[in-house]
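Dear support,

I submitted the protein below through the web form. The confirmation email said the job was done, but the results page showed an empty box. After a refresh the structure appeared. I'm attaching both so you can tell me whether what I see now is the final result or a partial one.
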Amino acid sequence: MVRDVAMNDLEGQVNVRMTQVTALVLRAVAAGRRYGFDVMETCALPSGTAYPALRRLEKAGCLKSRWEDASLARSEGRPRRRTYELTALGRDALPAAEQKLEEARRLLGAMPPVPPAEAG
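What the results page shows now:
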């Protein structure tokens, strides 16, 4: 059974559920993925999943974000991008994220393979 790990045991009292999605997003930002689109691609998540997770992690104090300078985006002919980075609280939450992802790997590895479909 997969259960959500609450991250309220940490010293900083992080108030976010550590789901597989939040764990993936936190880990991607920790690995240097600074833009939401990069996080989406790294985690293979749709925007409707990745961006709410980024907002939840920011609201919980695990991430901080800022918009890039508009003139830079204009000069490159694209919309402004928001950059994300880990906070100290986010770094403290990484072990819980790794634990959540390891639990998912273990559970998926324990699943029996799907038998091939019989030719009909």
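Response: this is the final, complete result; the empty box was a page-load delay. Residues 1-7 have pLDDT under 50 and may be disordered.
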